[in-house]
Amino acid sequence: MIQVKTLIPDPLPAEVVELIDRRKRLGLDNFDEVWEGVYHVAPMARFGHARLDQQLAVLLEPVARRAGLQVSGAFNLGDPDNFRVPDRGIHRGDPDPGTVYLPSAAVVIEIVSPGDETYEKVPFYAAHQVEELWIVDPTERTVQIRALMGDGYELTERSGLLELTSGQIRAGLGWS
């Protein structure tokens, strides 16, 4: 299948508005994003992606707790007109459970899926001062830990927040 992108300028045709409304009603929009006012439709992840996300949750919860941090699943990072939905987050403090959009996170974790926009999100996360960005690629069986340095990220072997190396994370996922 050829990967295509479609941009429909405003005003949106009634059919597109109906599609977005239908996705919301059915709960199919959980991973949809808005990039500077442009709506990005994202399909639900495949089973392997969801399973890997669950393994990460189990691995990270006790480590984050010891560091005084909180682990979450997918969440909206940004504001209503410009947000991304990472697969998992690690947060400082205790964000209000009713909050819909968080301005930043200590760590954002993206699990790569075929045809997704993980790598296009990197500058957005840096602009929102996400301290670490972890990119987990199940096809390549790699875990990249990127630490925020100035206005961009540098690859590192160890998380400065959780005292884990990319090798330890890979081993915890059964990839060693």
Would you kindly provide a written description of the structure presented here, covering whatever features stand out?
This protein is an alpha+beta fold. It is 26% helix and 26% strand. It has four helices and eleven strands, in the order H-E-E-H-E-E-E-E-E-E-H-E-E-E-H. A six-stranded mixed sheet has the order 3-6-8-9-10-11. A three-stranded mixed sheet has the order 5-4-7, with no helix packed on it. Strand 9 (132-137) and strand 10 (142-149) form a beta hairpin. The longest helix has 20 residues, at 47-66.
Give me a quick take on this structure.
With 176 residues, the protein is an alpha+beta fold.
Please tally the β strands and state the result: 11
* Strand and helix order: HEEHEEEEEEHEEEH
Beta-strand percentage range: 25-35%
Helix-strand category: alpha+beta
Strand order of the largest sheet: 3-6-8-9-10-11
Shape: globular
- Helicity range of the residues? 25-40%
Low-pLDDT residue intervals, each spanning 5 or more residues: none
Mean pLDDT: 93
Q: Rg from C-alpha positions?
A: 17 Å
- Please give the count of helices: 4
Major pleated sheet = 6 strands, mixed
First-to-last CA distance: 32 Å
Topology, pairings included?
Elements lengths: L13 H13 L6 E3 L2 E3 L6 H20 L3 E3 L3 E4 L2 E3 L3 E4 L9 E2 L4 E5 L10 H6 L4 E6 L4 E8 L2 E5 L9 H7 L4
Parallel strand pairs: 4-7, 8-9
Antiparallel strand pairs: 1-2, 3-6, 4-5, 6-8, 9-10, 10-11
What structural keywords apply?
176 residues, three-stranded mixed sheet, single chain, alpha+beta
